[in-house]
């Protein structure tokens, strides 16, 4: 996630989107993304059958049309994203800045589980700055504001404080990472790693070749000769019988 193409967009506050380019999944035959983002086919029962790779800060979701309060957007979509990491700015040096609002979106084709873990140097200001990790590409920010956090929201994890949290898993092919800092103290930050379990691609079964019906071989010269000889023998025997009958008839007339 530390490399890739950066797109800078002029706002009152500088924002940027960073797309990590990896081996993509199967792209949609027809692009269904409203903003002409890259469209990927998806096959998860009960969930959208495609995803769009968002490229604009302040937008997220499966089709990138939902607004969100993030100034920085980083994405990793494709098979090459099965393993990766994200590091906050200036990790373990000067630390992250005030008023950070960073969103990372992940889409890993055919992933059934995404395991997350942290570098030991994890430091986030407790009860002030917040890190959320959850399933999907839509961040339930309204629930964050209401203070429900991960206590009432399934598949959502909340972290702050000092010391690396325990590893955990999100059981899906999509996930988000959202970090927000307030306007006061800053800490070292964090580095988060992920590793996905990816199902094998569906196997295509080829139909067995259709066997052509057996064909009779054309008669050989030997077969033709045998047939001709038999026919000649029949003709010869017929001729001899006719001659014999004529001779008998002539002999009978003479004696008369």
Explain what you see.
Residues 1-25 form the signal peptide. InterPro entries: CUB_dom, EGF, Sperma_CUB_dom_sf. The chain crosses the membrane at residues 234-254. With 256 residues, the chain is α+β, with helices and mostly antiparallel strands. Helix content is 17%, strand content 31%. The protein has three helices and 17 strands. It has helices at 141-145, 149-152, 221-255; strands at 5-9, 15-21, 39-41, 50-52, 59-60, 66-67, 72-77, 83-87, 101-107, 111-118, 123-124, 130-135, 156-159, 161-162, 168-170, 174-180, 191-198. It has a seven-stranded mixed beta sheet with strand order 1-2-7-9-16-12-13. A four-stranded antiparallel beta sheet has the order 8-17-10-15, with no helix packed on it. A hairpin with a 5-residue loop joins strand 5 and strand 6. The protein is elongated. Mean pLDDT is 78; it is low at 2-16, 20-24 and 226-256.
């Amino acid at each position: 996630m530390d490399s890739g193409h950066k797109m800078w967009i002029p706002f009152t506050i500088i924002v940027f989107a960073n797309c990590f380019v990896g081996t993509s999944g199967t792209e949609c035959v027809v692009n269904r993304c409203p903003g002409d983002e890259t469209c990927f086919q998806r096959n998860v029962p009960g969930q959208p059958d495609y995803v769009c790779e968002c490229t604009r800060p302040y937008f997220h979701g499966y089709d990138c049309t939902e607004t969100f309060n993030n100034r920085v957007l980083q994405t990793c979509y494709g098979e090459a994203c099965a393993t990766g990491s994200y590091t906050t700015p200036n990790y373990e040096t000067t630390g992250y800045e005030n008023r950070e609002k960073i969103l990372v979106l992940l889409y890993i084709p055919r992933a059934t589980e995404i395991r997350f873990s942290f570098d030991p140097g994890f430091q986030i200001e407790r009860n002030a700055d917040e890190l959320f990790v959850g399933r999907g590409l839509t961040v339930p920010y309204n629930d964050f504001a209401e203070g429900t956090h991960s206590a009432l929201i399934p598949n959502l994890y909340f972290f702050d404080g000092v010391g690396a949290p325990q590893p955990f898993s999100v059981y899906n092919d999509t996930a988000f990472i959202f970090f927000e800092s307030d306007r006061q103290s800053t800490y070292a930050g964090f580095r988060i790693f992920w590793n996905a379990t990816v199902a094998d691609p569906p196997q295509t079964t080829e139909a067995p070749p259709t066997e052509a019906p057996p064909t009779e071989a054309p008669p050989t010269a030997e077969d033709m000769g045998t047939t001709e000889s038999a026919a000649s023998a029949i003709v010869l025997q017929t001729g001899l019988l006719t001659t014999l009958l004529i001779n008998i008839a002539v002999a009978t007339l003479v004696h008369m």
